Amino acid sequence: MTILAALVTIGCSSATAASESKPTVVVSTSIWADIVENLLCEQAHDEVAVTVLFDTNADPHTAELQLSDRARLADASLVVINGAGLESTLSDTIDAVEADGVPVLNLASTISDRVIDNDPHFWLDPSIVAETIVPLSDRLIELGADNATVTSCAEEYRRSLEAVDTKSTKQFANLAPSQRRLAVVHGFGYFASRYDLEIVATVEPETDQASPSPAALAATIEVMNNEGITVLATDAYHHSDDVNAIKAAVDGLVEVPVYTSGLGPSDDTDTYIEVIEQNTLGLVAALAQ
Amino acid sequence: MNPVSDPYGWWIEPFVEHAFMRSALVAGLLAVLATSVVGTWVVLRGMTLLGDALAHGVLPGLALAAVVGFNLSVGAALAALAMAAGVSLIRSSSPLPEDTATGVLFVGFLALAVVIMSAGSTAYSTELTSFLFGSITGVTNADLVRQAIATSVTVIGTTIGYRAFLALTFDETNAAMLGLRPRLTHGVLLVLIAVAIVSSFEAVGNLLVFAFLVAPPAAGALVASRVPTIMGVSVALGGVAVVLGLLIGLHFDTAPSATMALLAVFEFAVIAAFQAVAPHSGSPRPSLR
User: Fold this and answer.
1) At A2, is the pLDDT very low, low, confident or very high (cuts 50, 70, 90)?
2) H-helix segments, B161-208
């Protein structure tokens, strides 16, 4: 069953209390909150506060809100959501927040031509994230963040995104095409298509309501064995019984935990750019074997 | 801040300051009113298993509505009616006791719901989650209007059918002689229960609506003997559970719907325990009036 998402703020609660007059941006996931913070740099943080709705290890597909989260949404100057169905358990709440007059920025709708098959996990492609920079910074400036600061921070961040994107592209390009084949968990499609990885099988998530059918699991195992796939990218936060079953049934399987929906817990995974770097490092190492 | 040192800040201010708290309060109180007036009959007639079956028997309707894509409330209502009709049919056409028929249908409906969901796409699941757990953080004015209409139906239905329900509850044989058509009365009662259950989803969610259908009326039946008094006590106890549940949920970050349900059960437990140790005057069994 769903674990209730706990309240999390990137800024500590005393900072929030001390800045009641300061416009606050509430961002649904920790990854987007990190991106928004980068657009503000350190300087513009005095003008605009950023808090995050979901815990880093929460599954945004099933996360639920507490009343205190709802209060933060009601008091926000801007709510930033990923959209494309990621926060669909909150759709009633988001609608109600919007009806109360709080502006909501749906990131998917700003880059809608790059959303494939209604898959909401587009943040795993840095080139798509780069396209959200302009709409995001425009809204931050509207809220009172200094125009010059945000513009230069945004430009700097765009370059960092390009850099990590280029670096990952190169690292994966060093692999032979036959090495770039793997099985992945749900949500990893954008990353794979950005770096020219071939997804041979996808392990669908277990939901609250029904586990994936044994037939689907058996098919995944069969495809992996037939195609000689030994690398499986798994969600670093959510372990499923299906992954255990695959590990038991596929010889020599290398499991690579990747961050798909939130920032990592350690110093080298607690920014979006580091998440892309670490996901790349882990996968390249496993695929090169 | 605590309820004693800062009574205004703890008890009152949340409702003054936040429109969503007022909406949640109204949604909760409407749910209490609807479930109390029908739940009283459920408790007095000893049909709690049927109430539970109706509450969870709506799931295949929800699943079908989510997979096929029509209004979830309509799906829920249809499934509840199908459950009610099925139970009535088995009751009138087989020698089995009613609880057997109810139990079999109950588990059958649950299994059907899971099968429908597993056959459908994976996109269905999130809206369903909000039905299971309620979405008290996302109550809109339109939701409140719908809920108010449904609650009015249950209150007016109970008022009009009062004599018939009373006769059915305490003297079914006599009811038939009086021309009160017990089977029709039973059917109407089932419909009212279904209306109360479906309309209370928003506030408390499908998993916990049963708590409100049973616990406050049961507590009422312990302390009062006249049916209108039982209903009144039930509404009062349920109302306290809603107000306290919302405040505890806000101040302590507990899941609001579950907190409300737990408080309702707790109130019942306290009253039952008190009655067990204290010598009570008068009969706890309601008498005909």
Assistant:
1) very low
2) 162-170, 172-177, 182-199, 201-204
ipTM of predicted complex? 0.81
Q: In chain A, whose CA is at the least distance from the CA of B251?
A: A68
Of A88, A204, A210, the CB nearest to B126: A88
B16 interfaces chain A, CB cutoff of 8 Å: no
- The rounded distance, in Å, linking the Cα atoms of B245 and B65 is 31
**B180 pLDDT exceeds 90?**
no
Q: Which structure tokens are listed for A46? A: 């005095």
Edge-first strand order for the sheet with A78-81 is A49-52, A24-27, A78-81, A104-106
Nearest CA in chain B to A75: B18
As given in the structure block, the two tokens for residue B70 are 């029509």
Distance between CA atoms of residues A270 and B275, nearest Å: 56
As a whole number of angstroms, the distance between CA B73 and CA B239 comes to 24
Task: Write the Ramachandran bin of B253: left for phi over 0, alpha for psi from -120 to 50, otherwise beta.
Answer: left
User: Kind of pairing, strands A254-258 and A49-52?
Assistant: unpaired
- Judged against a pLDDT cut of 70, whether residue A264 lies above it is answered with yes
Nearest neighbour of A208 by CB, restricted to B63, B129, B251: B129
What is d(CA B115, CA A255) in angstroms, rounded to the nearest whole number?
Answer: 31
DSSP H or E stretch at residue A255: strand A254-258
The reply to whether A117 touches chain B by the CB within 8 Å rule is no
- pTM given for the model: 0.85
- Do residues A190 and A119 touch, judged by C-beta distance below 8 A? yes
Q: Which of A7, A96, A207 sits opposite B138 (nearest CB)?
A: A96
